[in-house]
Prior knowledge:
Layout: H1 6-13, H2 17-25, H3 32-45, H4 51-58, E1 63-68, H5 76-92, E2 96-101, H6 105-114, E3 120-123, H7 133-138, E4 143-146, E5 157-160, H8 162-175, E6 180-184, H9 188-192, H10 196-212, E7 215-219, H11 225-238, E8 244-247, H12 253-262, E9 272-277, H13 279-284, E10 290-293, H14 296-311, E11 319-322, E12 326-327
Parallel strand pairs: 1-2, 1-3, 3-4, 4-5, 5-11, 6-7, 6-8, 8-9, 9-10
Antiparallel strand pairs: 10-12
Helix pairs in contact: 1-2, 1-3, 5-14, 8-10, 11-12
Amino acid sequence: xxxxxxxxxxxxxxxxxxxxxxxxxxxxxxxxxxxxxxxxxxxxxxxxxxxxxxxxxxxxxxxxxxxxxxxxxxxxxxxxxxxxxxxxxxxxxxxxxxxxxxxxxxxxxxxxxxxxxxxxxxxxxxxxxxxxxxxxxxxxxxxxxxxxxxxxxxxxxxxxxxxxxxxxxxxxxxxxxxxxxxxxxxxxxxxxxxxxxxxxxxxxxxxxxxxxxxxxxxxxxxxxxxxxxxxxxxxxxxxxxxxxxxxxxxxxxxxxxxxxxxxxxxxxxxxxxxxxxxxxxxxxxxxxxxxxxxxxxxxxxxxxxxxxxxxxxxxxxxxxxxxxxxxxxxxxx
Length: 333
């Protein structure tokens, strides 16, 4: 079967080949009537512009790289929410997404940038002292970080304000009258890497607890039921008066509720529980968890929007922090 060419589309629509090219690239204003005639011919003939030709004509690859943290301690379903949002939004800008793993580090970024395969880069799992940051400041390709290093100067970063999210959880428990509270955070390996979102959540929680004069504890938490049960039991043994618990570990949230039940603590009658997690995780729990939403869809959308603006030469803000939102459900009183 013969491949349909741009010349075939031009003949079918009764226009010049250059007019078809302008309609498809958007580089020149074409009348609405002519544009519609060309698009009708494209659909009728089943024409698919060659990606390589498009890239040469526009000097763009029409691809962005998403550096995804497929590493220990990261919750895969939540990562997929971010990735889905990035892919969906990128398609709205006529771009595809190349997935890279974060463990390639600066060498992986340098390799993909040198290949001219991508127009720009989105990076997740940003560390406080991220070794990729110096390279990002040097690359010709624009980049956006989903997360914040210690020094964001010269970078473009977007994320939930995790420090405020941690503080909001402590504020909520303080307002309910709880005086002894604790945070069960991400797995230990996440803190050992100095991952920004985990560090900032713990710092925000601790600062708010001090501000309210609360007796507070904050520690890592692993993901398996046995490990979670052990962590909760140790916490209750050390702090018998504990009545408020914040969980910043999506994989552990349901296990925390189960462990509390096994240890004879009712939720929320004996212990109020707040989670920082996607709404679907909070709503599936029993009881449904009071939670601060991780807005993966919004963050992914904003990251792509910022990257596309940079590709078009527009100025963008250095820092974009999404305001945390707490939804009260059945796990706190």
